[in-house]
TrEMBL record:
Protein's recorded name: Tetraspanin
Compartments reported by the entry: Membrane
Transmembrane segments: 26-55, 67-87, 99-124, 211-234
Organism encoding this protein: Parnassius mnemosyne (clouded apollo)
Major site of localization recorded for this protein: membrane
Membrane-protein topology: Multi-pass membrane protein
Length: 249
């Protein structure tokens, strides 16, 4: 191990390298602690989204389970982050070159995995994303099927629950020559809700996953910093070993 010959007065160059290595490895250690905390927070947030009372039922009723694809990817990545953070701490403190290379590989994998998860989540939860056509198709199908009790009940729950009307607004009913249901109106003013359920549902999902996506992208940046610092540490350890050999000879 690189630290075995330290403290033996091997010369000013080696001593300077020792100081640099000390600084790098403890900075890397701190970054891994922060990464682990991010991993725990992301895992808890994903778990909360998956088991939140009522939310899961809504998504099943509206056939929007695709929303959870990105959540599951991020959930798995967060578990990886928590495990790999310990590898990063250990490899940095031990100055083990092989473990540091393995750690760099895991950071690259987690960066890619996290980026994919964040992209999928954002693609199924933001305005003008892939989730909006899915919501619109489902709502229009429910509006066009008023004779079915289940369709009426689902539509009533959605419009009453989030305060919206139709897919894109009240005109969806008027264009189909259908009466405006009572749940399309504000219970206080009696006026029809201006926004459609597509926009309202998207904004609702956006609010739930905005923080999650931000935390994941921040973790991806930490992975990049960790990989770069690990490579710097590897080069410093190798140089220290070479200079120690030269000095001894």
């Amino acid at each position: 191990m690189a630290g075995a010959g330290k403290g033996n007065g091997l010369g000013p160059a080696v001593g300077k390298l020792e100081s640099q290595i000390y600084c790098i490895k403890y900075t890397l250690f701190c970054f891994n602690v922060v990464l682990w905390l991010f991993g725990v927070s992301i895992f808890a947030l994903c778990l909360w989204i998956c088991i939140e009372p009522g939310f899961n039922e809504w998504m099943k009723i509206l056939e929007l389970q695709k929303y959870f694809i990105g959540i599951y990817i991020i959930l798995i990545a967060s578990l990886g982050v928590m495990v790999v953070a310990f590898l990063g701490c250990g490899s940095a403190l031990m100055e083990n070159i092989l473990l540091l290379y393995a750690f760099i590989g895991t950071q690259i994998a987690l960066f890619v995995f996290g980026l994919i998860g964040a992209c999928v989540v954002l693609d199924f939860s933001t305005y003008d994303s892939s989730i909006q056509p899915l919501i619109k198709n489902i709502l229009m199908r429910l509006i066009n099927n008023p004779q079915h009790e289940g369709s009426r009940e689902i539509l009533r729950m959605v419009q009453e629950g989030i305060g919206c009307c139709g897919a894109d607004g009240p005109m969806d009913y008027l264009n189909l020559n259908k009466p405006l249901p009572s749940e399309c109106r504000d219970s206080v003013t009696g006026n029809a809700y201006f926004h459609g359920c597509v926009d309202e549902l998207t904004w609702y999902l956006e609010g739930k996953t905005g923080w999650l996506a931000g935390m994941v992208l921040a973790s991806c940046m930490i992975c990049v910093v960790n990989a770069v610092m690990s490579m710097v540490l590897i080069q410093a350890v190798k140089k220290e070993e070479e200079e120690a050999i030269v000095y001894k000879n």
